[in-house]
Automatic annotation (TrEMBL):
UniProt keywords, alphabetically: Repeat
Stretches forming PPR repeats: 71-105, 173-207, 275-309, 310-344, 377-411, 412-446, 479-513, 514-549
PANTHER family membership: DYW DOMAIN-CONTAINING PROTEIN, OS07G0578800 PROTEIN-RELATED
One GO process term, biological-process aspect: RNA modification
Statement: the UniProt record of this protein carries the keyword Phosphoprotein: no
Transmembrane intervals: none
Coiled-coil ranges from the UniProt annotation: none
The protein's name in its UniProt record: Pentatricopeptide repeat-containing protein
Pfam hit, one: PPR
GO molecular function: RNA binding
Amino acid sequence: MNAEASAFVGLLRACAKKKDCCRGARIHADVLKRGFLDRNSHVAEYLVALYANCGVLPKAQELLDALHIRGVVAWTALIAGYTRYGHCQHALQCYDRMQQEGIAADVVTFTCVLKACGTLGDFDKGKQIHDLISKQNLLDNDVFLGTALVDMYAKCGALVKAHLALDELPCRDVICWNALITGYAQHEQGQNALDCFEHMQQEGLFPNAVTFTCALKACGHIGDINKGEAIHDEIMKQDFLREDLSLGNALVDMYMKCGDLAKAQEVLELLPIRDVISWSALIGGYAQQGQGQEALDCFEKMQIEGLSPNSVTLTCLLKACSSIGAADKGEKIHDEIVRQGLLESSIVLGNGLVDMYAKCGALAKARQVLNDLPVRNVISWSTLIAGYADQGQGHNAISCMERMQQEGFSPNAVTFTCLLKACSSIGATEKGEEFHDDISRQGFFKNNVALGTALVDMYAKCGALAKAQRAFEELPSGDVVCWSALIAGYAQHGYGEKALHCFELMQLNGLSPDTITFSSVLNACSHSGLVGEGELIFDSMTREFGIKPNVEHVASMVALFGHAGHLDKAVEVIQKIPSLQSSPAVWLSLMGACKRWGDVNIGQWAFEQAVRPLMNPILT
DNA sequence: CTAGGGTTAG
């Protein structure tokens, strides 16, 4: 290659590196003018690299296709470009073509191909590349390649393989540990991520900002706030927050996931720099915890700082509106979404809108939004079906499913869960049985306790208790929720003894009853007049299981005692728990008993107690 | 050419 050609190569490499496509194109024109492309394929290879790096992929591909002699540089540049700009499938196709032409891949090619495999989750292809690399002993002198290998396995979710690959590397640095830790954190194996975090430091390596970011994510997943705080201290000592936005955001998210919302907000307010993602983490956390108003307040503050919401922020805000039934605020968010034109690109956001209107009870609007969506999926439909089911509009839920099928979508396990709920809301046992058959045929009951519970609940609510019992027994596994559904079914239909029997069986199976189980059991006692049993169970609830009585528990006990004529005991239960005395349900239960036994005195007293909290806002 | 942050249906 002559001096002029190598000067062009140098210029093109510089433009490729800086992604300066404009200057690169001028050089391209110059190269053409002097006829270099005909005489010197090396210059042409770097032209491919220029366009690939700048993301002008069709142009890069076109140039490569036109070359008669093309080597590893051009192929690798194109593969790297496709991978970087998210066309990993194309990257792998290029790799295959390169192989067919007999061009040997080098470490850079392999690194890029591994990244493409990881992004696609293509384990088989990744493994095949790994074998090639091992055969050529390429891992001995290239840290980048080793990292790419660990990262590929980690992204495919093959974490044992990833860990093994890391162990076998001749030398390990922070970055390859980060790849593994990230993999564990992203696949919800928080403890393994934190173990690696320790292990890495035992090897004498210091965590950097990325390591801390991933470790914080892991803490959030397993709710380990102590570890999270320790990492927070370390970050402050090293003053990492000043230069790293992601790290601050991970910190906010960690406190949110660990349930310390106040601390999360405090951290955000003290961040030296924050962006829309920082606020989204906070808004998302509040929305998740059902604190919709706080989420909306954060949105105000974020806007005052001059930041605009993106589709993730808006998704969180919709959830916030749903949680407090704020359809008016939700409509404002809807307007913003339309203004930004986001419905075209974000199906998640569209589904969030359907959910918001549905949860606010505006089902006609939810349906209209769904109809107007440019793209829909099974989640869009399931959301609407869930909305109808929640509002007791079972018939509409079922007709939605029919329309969904006409559009070519098949119901999945979640859809069926909603549909079963729809059946229970209208007592549609026969339709429920049809769904039961469909679900069994498709094997959805395996590994899905929630679906099984919905089935038991459907039969139980419809009063088909023998079928509920049979469905329950056929489930591969049952948790507390599932048992509670069965117990509630027996309770509701007056089979108190059976409910109590289930309650005991459940505990014999090693499961501890929760608040809801006790609601059902006490309800069973009160419906069946099992005074002694109810009293014992109510007592054990706090003493043995540490569960504080709620309104439903107390109302059941008052009904139980009251029905049996023990008005004194009913009054006693209420008086023991002052925090529940503002609940009308408790007093209504007592007044019912007074009416039955003709006790005017207690009845009048109960009435006064019930009315007082209702009158206070009016009087003052 | 290698590692990191926020999000839809039960």
